[in-house]
Task: structure prediction
Amino acid sequence: MLDPSLKTQLTGYLERLQRPIELIASADASAASAEMMTLLHEIAACSPKVAVVERDDGERSPSFAIAAAGEAPRVRFAGLPLGHEFTSLVLALLQVGGHPPKIDAAVVDQIRGLEGDFRFETYMSLSCHNCPDVVQALNTLAALNPRVQAVAIDGALFQDEVQARKIMAVPSVFLNGQPFGQGRMGIEEVLAKIDRGAAARQAVALSAKAPFDMLVVGGGPAGAAAAVYAARKGIRTGVVAERFGGQTLDTLGIDNFVSVSHTEGPKFAAALEAHVRDYEVDMINALRAERLERRDDGGFDVRLAGGAVLRSRTVVVATGARWREVGVPGEQPYRGRGVAYCPHCDGPLFKGKRVAVIGGGNSGVEAAIDLAGVAAEVTLLESAPALRADAVLVAKARSLPNVRIVTQAQTTEIAGDGEKVTGLRYTDRAGGGAHEVALEGVFVQIGLVPNSEWLKGVVEMNRHGEIVVDARGQTSVPGLFAAGDVTTVPFKQIVIAAGDGAKAALGAFDHLMRSAAPTETSPFV
Result:
């Protein structure tokens, strides 16, 4: 099952185990169980500290737990954690085996000090590139705290549970049997939800920080580049991000970043974060900026969700953009219950079902092609007279027998039965007739909207909500710079955003050199 090169790598990783571990298997007579047992024995063959134990412990079959020898198991995989989840498996083996996770010591202490009993169940798909972050975060909690259990469940393998719990999107997390969260989550976000006093403690600690020379708001390619360029100037630099990596976390393949012929979005995001951490940058993750205020001294206060306030002489806004919503009745009520925005993540949940894709640009046509491999029928709806995607993509979509393309289709409503999506209604813009398509899933792929609402009334924007910037990234407010997809800069591309971030940081640095009142830690004193 594991190729020789992968076994060699795994053998090297397992040399880091500090104590023996057991792979406790719950298997039945199914082919999936046989595959699981093959995988477990191949893993055990890579280290003398790993043993396979078959035991019917009343858990799902096929599944297996990872436990330190002599301890009750707290980390479990239901299914075969291959594909994107293989890294989650390797990290779980190491952490249960005593190898310390790469997180701050303060976070480790917070995890170990959690009060209460927590059993997390995460429904994921092996093709989802957002799921591993959630699985790995919860596994880390379970490895460090004996009162936490984490179970990762392959939704494609346990379809009965998926239907019973009405799961229409991954990752979906349940805590002690109740819905806990959906979508990408990191350790900080999970802790903020289960550690009741964490937000207040964090707000006090963050507000006590000394002022920054440059504070970057946003952790995507633009924000990361700005932070690196600022830190290399030797000034006090901070980054606050709702999720480090930004839109790249939702991008499956990246083939057009110059000098990198191919990479995947989550891998690229991890590389961005690692590069920033190479410098003296104060990184504040999993917090959203809610308001920006100008100080009397010319600096800025950035107010965060949770009550914290960060002070800085200059600010670089790099908050990026998010999926644009279609804005019709039914979209919000059925979000996560048939309405989805990531075909790579949620597509496997619609195997053999009927779905629609709204949007005829590259992302929409690519989504239709991708979904055609798992769905029974795919209806691609475009409001314009013709698809706007590249010709090669259009040709591919038209060649697929289970893809139906409808142009001049204005979506008017997403219908449902109160629990899940059952159909979609649209109007023919040419003939004016109303139509309805019976289906189980709707994927919205109609572009992006800038994350700039928190700055309305503060800085000049165009009619699309993009922040107006000059050639240096300077906004209409002195000392406030912006970069990337949140700005008026055309062509929303990763490489352009990265260059934009560098430019804005250099512009902000130039502003600092020409302004008065340096901080005590500033090199301009």
Summary: The mean pLDDT is 94. The chain has three domains: 4-196, 203-322+449-514, 339-444. Residues 339-444 form a domain with the FAD/NAD(P)-binding domain fold (CATH 3.50.50.60). Residues 494-514 form the longest helix (21 residues).
